[in-house]
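Standup notes
- HV: blocked on the assembly model, inputs below
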Amino acid sequence: MKSDIAYIDDNRLNLEAVQTILSQDFNVQTFNKPENFLAIFDQSSYTTILVDIHMPTLDGFTLYEKIIEHPHYNGCPILFISSDDSDSARIKSFVLGAVDFLNRDINPEEMIARIKSKIQFYQKHRSIIEFTNLRVNLTLLKAYLNSKELPLTFIEFKILCLVLRNYPDVITKEQLIQQVWRTDHVLDATIYTHVSNLNSKLGDWDYEINGLKTKGVQLMKKVTA
Amino acid sequence: MKWSLLYFDDQIQNIEAFKEILSDKFNVIGCSDATAFPQMLEEYHPNAILLDVHMPIMDGHTLYKNISQHPLYNGCPVIFISGDASDENKIKSYEGGGIDFLSRNLKIEEIAIRLENKIKFFTQMSTNLELGNLMVDVKSMKASINNKNLDLTLLELRMLNHLLRSYPQTLSRTELISRVWGNDSVKPGTINTHLTNLKPKIDNWDYQIKVREDNILIQKKDKT
């Protein structure tokens, strides 16, 4: 499966040229206005974002900062792309924190290899669990539903991660006690209190955690009556 | 504190030069014998590894393959460096697993910032944090000192997590609040309460958390 890449550049000719180069290896979505990209950022998930530096309404450096501060940002590599290969443009890109700077005129094969190397590294180390409109960021230790942070307790956070990782399997009571509480024995009533509190915080999400009295717990799609 | 950079290059004068010019931000550990990589990985836990591409006994690309399969490799970014900036050499380095390729012609300022960037990209994502005898595994949400589990609250683990991720740099009180609590208004004094609760739990750590005016930092304890 091809990785999803977003590419933002005000120049349509650039968008087309780079898309042609990359479309064999990646699924490229192009945006000729940074504002349009930001408007749909909530509903999208990319493995790489390519940002042009010189744009009239919102320059690439400002766009970069808006992306990394966005609650929906998944930590994927962000690369600058420009035909301005001056030392100052490159250094400024790196100082901001971009993982690479691509001169638009480099060998297409090199462009592909540089993007792939970042994606590989990201996928090996990324620590974000995404499940429909729910996102758990393990490096921040926070969970978001529709980009809104859920106020979870530590126990609830651990239960949520466990059911997400094991979906659609059942987690036995023993596994649950051992991995969430790290002890040998927890009362059934305690488990169910935490699970039901977690479910109510998940509100009208399409999924819920079902406590199966004898077996354990499991994440399941809600049955609509 | 500086980033630790493990640098393999058969030319000792290159190693010496990098030790000198990168010394502001990096502690460069040099090794001119590529075949000694198992001992180096055993002894050091680098933040990044820099590999010269052209080396006589084992070239940089082969060395990368060996390092990446070694059980003690910590997953840190590997960057290639070479005087040969041909497309072929660059592409081979990226396809061979390097996260960056540095031409020796680059300004030292750019080399330093590109190395540091890859380290930051890695530490932001990494789920295994280690400093001294403290280990935090955020994937399984466990923290331990000398392999003994710590009983932390979610907020304590978040604070520790962010302090470890920014180490060796310090965090200001407002930065820590915005990372741990989000942008909600939390009184600056709240941090003190949580730090006070955290302190006895991490008493056996070789490091300690210090509050210096508006900054919160991790500091090695003096050996007495």
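- HV (later): unblocked. Residues 41 and 72 of chain A are 7 Å apart (CA to CA). Chain A touches chain B through 40 residues (CB under 8 Å).
- Next: hand off to the docking folks.
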